[in-house]
Structure formats: C-alpha cells, structure tokens
Amino acid sequence: MTTTTYLVLASLLDGPRHGYAIVQHAATLSEGSTRLTTGTLYGALERLQREGLIEDAGQEAIDGRLRRYYRLTDAGADQLREQTAQMQRTAAAVAPQLAQWGLTS
Amino acid sequence: MSRRYVVAMQAYPEPFRRQARADMLATLHDGDRERGHASNREALSLLLNGTRERFAPQHAQSLLALLGLVLLFIAVAPDGLWIVQHSTGGPDGHPGGVAGPTHSEVRFLLAAAGIAAIAQRAPFVACLLAALTPYGFWVLSGISMGSGAGAFAAEGSDLAMIGLSVASALILTALSIQLAKRAPKLAVTTWCTGALWLAALSGTAAGLRALMLGNLSGGRGTLAAPVIGDLGVAFIACAAVLALSTFGLAQALSALRSAQNQPTPTSH
C-alpha cells in the first residue's frame, strides 16, 4: 500500500469527506510532509472505489460547486488496520537497531 | 478557474472526466482559494495522472482495440494482397515485395494478439473474428487462392489453431452468460480473461517454437518484414502477445481484488 493510499484511507476513518477535505486531513496526518495533488488524489479515489475500499457517500453543492463525499467501507477499514499493524511491527523491529547504532532522535 | 487546469484535464480519458470532472474542479478551486493563485504543480499532476489513467487497463480498451486491428491487418493483409496481385498475373505469379502467403506461426501470433486486443473492447466482434478468420483462410487454402491461408491452416500450427478455437468458444460462453445475466460481472471478466490468456499462451508457444526452430519464413508474409526483417517481425509479435498477456493478467488481478472486497457494501 502506497503512502497516498494509506493517507486517503486514514483520512476517511472518522467519517465521510470530500476531495479537498481529504487533501487537508492527509496533510495534517502526515504533519505537512505529504501534500496530495488533485490528480494524485482522484486517481487513488477511483482505484480505491473500484477495489471496494471506499464508496460514494453522496454529493452536495457548496458555493455553487458540486462536492462528492467518500467514505470508508468495512474492507477499507480492515486494510487500513492491517497496514497500520504491519507498519507498527516493522517500526518495532527497526527501532532497537536504530538505538544500537545511536541513531534515535 | 485556471485555463491550464481545464487543458491539463483533457489528458484524462472521457469516462473518467465525465465521472469526476466537476468534483475535481471544486477541489482545485478550493486549493487555489487557499493559496491565492493557480498552481503549476497541480496542472502538471493533472497532466501526468491523466495520461497514466488513459493507459490504465480499465480505460485502455479503445487504444488496445485499435492496436489489435492494426496487428490483425498486418497478419492477414498479405494474403489479400497476394490474391489480388496473383489474380492480375504477376511476372512469375508471385508479386514482388510480398512473397505470397506462407505457413507462418508468426502471422498467427500477430492475428491472435490482434483478436485478443479487440476482445478487450468488443468481445463479440473479437469472437466473430476468431471464428471466421481461420475458416476464411481454410476456405481460401482449399480453393488454392493463397496457399497460406497462412497462419491458420499451416502445417504445424495445430497448437495455435486449437488455442484460437478454444478461445473463441470460451468468449462465446462468456457472452452467453452475460446475456443471460445469470452471473456477476466478475465471472464474465474472468472467463474472457481466461480465454484471452489461452489464445495468447498458445500463440506464444507456437511463435517461440517457430523462433527456436529458426522457421521464420512466415515473417516474409508480413508487411513489416521488408523494413525490420523476419526476426524483427517475430520478436515484435512475441512482445505484442506478451504485453497483451500481461495486460490480461493485470485486469484479472484487479477484478479478483475487487471481488474480494465487494461483499462488504456497508459503510464504516
């Protein structure tokens, strides 16, 4: 799972969001290190929808512009949980080695 | 809205634009409002991601079908040319530049790849081509109009012939299922992909056998041979089939992944 995919799924964890809200929340989650472009975001959204990890949650017109909302499916939540656990296991395995070489911050 | 966004979005395939254009423009508008200006990075990203989407399996069927038609034309055109020129009477009965229809696994390979590519966009047309092309060649061969009827009635092409016949039957079956609407879409996709794989694999086997045996005479029968040589034609044919097989595999994996995730329609 790529960082983009992970951040998009994670951004939908606490409820449906529209495109720009996902961009903002992903930036917050990554502490500003990842700023999704619209092209990258909608490519990921299309793929995730096709794979059944997210789904359309309706649309709403705000300031005369149509915004489509997306939400996480159960399958998406499962994948997010598995990926997070995997990353935690990897980090747990690497952390002692970093400490051994005096590379902890 | 910046004109460069609108222009860059033309890189996306039409179905993608129809589905997401309004939403994407709203997101771009929000970003511009926060930044206070349009972004070159956003425009470039639209261009790159749009181009990538255009060649993604789910949007590339039209391009592949066009490529398939070209491959099929390259494979079968020599017979037509030979027949036309032979009937008008060349100096020795064989027109220059085209050596006359020949027994050729290479040409089968081109035709099979072409039909497989067309099947991605128009399975029914591909099915008709898969069924009619070998028969047409066989008939021509029988009445001595183009001994080659070439790739399809060739001695030693039995494996390829069987592969194409099986593929044709499987595509027909898949279409029947689709028409009957008795199976989910995945079943049809899987059957079609399986059929194309069989055709591609049998064609590849026949082509590789021709390469290993050095039996490249069939390359002379293709229009490209005078330019890139018999060996070049053979390698391009193998590469075309390999690319299509990879495409088929990618699509099958994508369909399987979707199927695994589909049974969970409830939202989180």
Give a description of the structure.
In chain A, helix 1 (3-11) packs across helix 2 (19-29). Helix content of chain A is 57%, strand content 18%. With 105 residues, chain A is α+β, with helices and mostly antiparallel strands. In chain A, a hairpin with a 2-residue loop joins strand 2 and strand 3 (65-72). Chain A is built from four helices and three strands; from the N terminus they run αβααββα. Chain A has a three-stranded antiparallel β-sheet with strand order 1-3-2. Chain B has 268 residues and is an all-alpha fold. Chain B is built from ten helices and no strands. Chain B is elongated. In chain B, helix 6 runs antiparallel to helix 8 (158-180). Helices cover 75% and strands 0% of the residues of chain B. At the A-B interface, helix 2, helix 3, strand 2, strand 3 and helix 4 of A face helix 2, helix 3 and helix 10 of B.
- What is the makeup of the main sheet of chain A? 3 strands, antiparallel
In helices, the fraction of residues of chain B equals over 70%
Provide the succession of SSEs of chain A. HEHHEEH
Order of helix and strand elements from N to C terminus of chain B: HHHHHHHHHH
Q: Low-confidence spans of chain B: pLDDT under 50, at least 5 residues?
A: 89-103, 143-160, 179-183, 216-223, 264-268
Query: Nearest-angstrom radius of gyration of chain A?
Result: 16 Å
Low-confidence stretches of chain A: none
Query: How many β-strand stretches of chain A?
Result: 3
Strand content of chain A: 15-25%
**Tertiary shape of chain A:** elongated
Greatest interface and its participating residue counts: A-B, 34 and 35 residues
| Cα-atom radius of gyration of chain B | 23 Å
State the secondary-structure class of chain A: alpha+beta
| N-to-C CA distance of chain A | 27 Å
| Structure summary, number of beta strands of chain B | 0
Oligomer category: heterodimer
Distance between the termini of chain B: 34 Å
**What's the pLDDT, averaged over the residues of chain A?**
89
